[in-house]
Amino acid sequence: MGMPLREHPAARPSPPAPAGPAARRARGGPRLRARLVRAGFVAPVVVYVLAFFAYPLARNVVLSFQDYGIESVYTGDAPFNGLANYARVLHDAVFRTAAANTVVFVVASLLFQFVIGLALAVFFQGSFPLGGLLRSLLLVPWLLPLVVSGTVFRWMLDTGNGVVNQVLLAAHVIGAPVPWLNSVDTAMIGVLLCNVWIGVPFNMVILYGGLRSIPRGLYEAAELDGAGALRRFRHITLPLLRPVITVVLTLGLIYTIKVFDVIWVLTKGGPANATQTVTTYAYQLSFGGLSEFGAGAAAGNVLIVVAMVFAFLYLRSLRSETP
Amino acid sequence: MTRPAEGRRSRGRTVIGAVLVAVMLFPLYWMVNASFQTNAQIAARSPSWLPLGGTLAGYRDALAAQGGHLLTSLLVATAATALTLLVAAPAAFGLTLLRVPGGRPLLFVLLIVQLIPGIVLANALYRIFSPLGLLGTPMALILSDSTLSVPFAVLILRAFMVSIPRELIEAAGIDGAGPVRAFLTIVLPVSRNALITAGLFAFLFAWGDFLFATSLNLGAPRWTPITVGLYDFIGAGTNTTSWNAVMATAVLASLPVAALLVIAQRYVAAGLSAGAVKD
């Protein structure tokens, strides 16, 4: 498009003979130095990203094409084996169970976290005495180490002495103790219960922020026009909250796909793979004793691809919503 | 006219709000409650709703078994926080006030790398750290835990530094050695709150890490953080009888959260929303 930047010999003011080092420093030196100093501020983070994100990612891709097993740990030998790791993972019945469980886990987690989070956000939207304090107390579950939350839920869902069974028994809701985390039928419910509890505060805070940014005048005008609370919610709150809802659900999805601690502490993916997700499956391949790092890398890469697809959709929706 | 009715209504909301919070925080109460109970109370058929006639035996056992793990966590989380701020603060300054070229792509990369599942990093870092002899050392945890917070910290600090007026820096003279001085004497002091927020989250992320600790320091009991210590406590036996010690450990593992929440409550919500809703 632009004119090719070719210097015409005649247009160039005849330069003095090649400047000595002192002159060169005087012209390009300080500028170069300033640029180096500025670049120096960003250099650490660039090196950091290369060393701790780019290189591991690349290593993981290479690993996923290598036959890395328990003997490789001792010999250091891991021959390339093409797509064998991906074939092994994708044909593994456990992986298929894990993939299905991941979908159930993610969808149910997001649904309940979002609905409860939104309800709480709407409730705390109105100002009342101690509202701010109560709201910040609700954040605590989100800040706790996940292992602590998992441990507490393991105690509450304990078959013999857990408070959940004790209360349900006393209320005659159940006739016999339910082995929440030890039964194939209920383990997923137990894991979900804990994960929803952890995720609600995050949903509430973000949605609360979104609600506060909706102009109050809109509600007042609608109220004057005779719109009831439900109509105001449907026709003002939901449409104006949509960008924030997209943010919450996408980030929730990205976090939930990679949940490891909660499941590992509560059930280790059991019983009989009932709560096995792709993340716990990948962990077991690499660190479960057989050191199948190649297959573990392949399973992990499948997870990345899924996360990236949703991230892409997220970024695209952000772009279409911000003018 | 409507004042008394409105007052009653808003008091009513406070009551409902308190009930909601009580329900949400019940698991925490139950943790604290069990941590003070005796083994007999724990094993009883019906729950003891209050830790009456309790004991500190759980805490004695917890400290005896987990004291060292708490120190490891403290060391690792503090170092990871320092590393995070050391990398992130200059970067945020460069990206905002210095307008270093290539800033936008770098920001995009920092946003994207947060999507990488921890298990993928753990898998690769294990193989990378192994020949370097880092496995089973605190350094392995410090480095890997910092991956949880560096991108987040840059984004938070950047969001804050964007609002620092450039004139403030220009007054200090931006060329040559200028930026270094401007950064140390103007930008860092002005960004105190943002630094606290970023550091707070870096500390909490590192303190709560379980995945890196249980993979990179697998079978290295010397440097076990409290999260893995707690997990081993219940993971050891299928039917744990010493729930009081387990819950006491859980309480101890939550203390930094409680402390930070009390000290820096207002930074937490700010960090949460700044980290999630980025432009």
UniProtKB/TrEMBL annotation, chain A:
Keyword line: Cell membrane, Membrane, Transmembrane, Transmembrane helix, Transport
Its localization reads:
Cell membrane
Transmembrane region(s) = 36-58, 103-124, 136-157, 187-208, 240-257, 293-315
Q: Which PROSITE patterns match?
A: ABC_TM1 (PS50928)
Q: Give the residue ranges for region: Disordered.
A: 1-26
What the record says about family reads: Belongs to the binding-protein-dependent transport system permease family.
Composition-biased stretches, type Basic and acidic residues, lie in 1-10
**Which Gene3D superfamilies does UniProt cross-reference here?**
MetI-like
The species is Sphaerisporangium corydalis
Q: Which Pfam family is one of those matched by this entry?
A: BPD_transp_1
What is the membrane topology here? Multi-pass membrane protein
Q: What top-level branch of life does the organism fall under?
A: Bacteria
Domain ABC transmembrane type-1, chain residue ranges per copy = 99-314
- Name of the protein: Carbohydrate ABC transporter permease
InterPro entries named among the record's database cross-references: MetI-like (IPR000515), MetI-like_sf (IPR035906)
From TrEMBL, chain B:
Cell membrane as a keyword?
A: yes
Matching InterPro entries: BP-dep_ABC_trans_perm (IPR050901), MetI-like (IPR000515), MetI-like_sf (IPR035906)
What superkingdom does the record give?
Bacteria
| Membrane-spanning ranges | 12-32, 70-95, 107-129, 141-161, 182-207, 245-264
Per the record, the coiled-coil ranges are: none
What is its membrane topology?
A: Multi-pass membrane protein
Q: Which organism is it from?
A: Sphaerisporangium corydalis
Pfam families, per the entry: BPD_transp_1 (PF00528)
* Residue ranges of every copy of the ABC transmembrane type-1 domain listed in the record: 70-264
CDD domains, A to Z: TM_PBP2
* Entry protein name: Carbohydrate ABC transporter permease
Q: Where in the cell is it found?
A: Cell membrane
Enumerate the UniProt keywords alphabetically.
Answer: Cell membrane, Membrane, Transmembrane, Transmembrane helix, Transport
Q: Which family does it belong to?
A: Belongs to the binding-protein-dependent transport system permease family.
Q: Key word 4Fe-4S present in the record?
A: no
Query: What taxonomic lineage is listed for the species of origin?
Result: Bacteria, Bacillati, Actinomycetota, Actinomycetes, Streptosporangiales
